[in-house]
Amino acid sequence: MLNTLPNLLTLSRILAIPLVVATFYMPMPLGPWVGCAIFSAAGITDWLDGKLARAWQQQSEFGGLLDPIADKVLVSATLLMLTASNRLSAWAVLPALVILCREILVSGLREHLADMRVKVPVTNLAKWKTFIQMLAIGVLLVGDSGPEFLHTRALGEALLWIAAVFTLVTGYKYLHAGIVHVGIADSKRQSSPIKPTTKPSQAT
Q1: Which of 137, 134, 135, 125 has its CA nearest to residue 165?
Q2: Is 56 helix (H, G, I), strand (E, B) or coil?
Q3: Does pLDDT of 165 surpass 90?
Q4: Res 57: pLDDT
Q5: Contacts of 170 by beta carbon, 8 Å cutoff, 6+ apart
Q6: Which of 57 and 141 is assigned the larger pLDDT?
Q7: Which is more confident, 62 or 158?
Q8: Is the pLDDT of residue 118 over 50?
Q9: Which residues lie closer than 8 Å to 198 by C-beta, 6 or more apart?
Q10: CA atoms within 13 A of residue 83's CA, in its CB half-sphere
Q11: What does the pLDDT read at residue 55?
């Protein structure tokens, strides 16, 4: 499981989470820049592990399980820390909440569909959502420590709102696809004939 580079890259994304959290307790401006660097490196592994797994034909059930977990925990932990440390303005908490709720919804939906042996493919729109979301969080990690002329915090919050819109659209698509598959499964279950149970005849 952990003897392939794609899986090791995915695992490194999980190991990066406490490191990103630790940067919130480092002095400014070092902490924000180090946090951005670690988060950006983790974001690159998100793109690289899947690419290498497909190119080298090293896709595995373990990697498929761990990859979305690593992504969601990394994003959720960082957004929570940004909110708790007051590095998000009040109006930017709403898109962060939308993103967190969507991650929980999609995780539950994927788990249910996995039990039905149904896979929902990742759309191009979802890939753009992930890219903009990662970019927004990376910029927000720098925040007020960035160059003043860039208005880094405002830029990051604007990108977070764009990511939230993409999140709502892709979340609806996943939910709709899940409801369709669940409806089909229920219809098949209800239409399948119920075989009567017969008791073995007793010899007289």
Answers
A1: 125
A2: coil
A3: yes
A4: 78
A5: 102, 123, 125, 126, 129
A6: 141
A7: 158
A8: yes
A9: none
A10: 16
A11: 81
Using N-to-C axis directions, what is the helix angle for 61-84 and 30-55, rounded to 10°? 160
Residue 117 CB neighbours (<10 A): 6
Give the mean pLDDT of 44-58: 81
CA 180 to each of CA 100, 110, 166, 171, 186: distance values in angstroms, whole numbers, following the listed order: 24, 13, 21, 14, 10
Query: What domains sit in the chain, N to C, each tagged with a CATH number?
Result: 5-189 (1.20.120.1760)
Q: Residue 3 corresponds to which tokens in the numbers above?
A: 């003897």
What CA–CA distance (Å, rounded) separates 45 from 39?
10
3-class state of residue 128 by DSSP: helix
How many CA atoms lie less than 13 Å away from 191 in the CB half-sphere? 6
Cβ atoms 127, 185 nearer than 8 A: no
Residues 194-203: contacts with CB within 8 Å, 24+ apart?
none
Lookup: tokens for 134? 């990662």
Instruction: Report the C-alpha gap between 13 and 113 in whole angstroms.
Output: 25
Residues 6+ apart with CB under 8 A from 56: 4, 5, 6
Q: Using one digit for the tens of pLDDT, what is the confidence trace for 70-89?
A: 888 999 999 999 999 999 99
CA–CA separation, 50 vs 63, rounded Å? 9
Amino acid code (one letter) for 24:
F
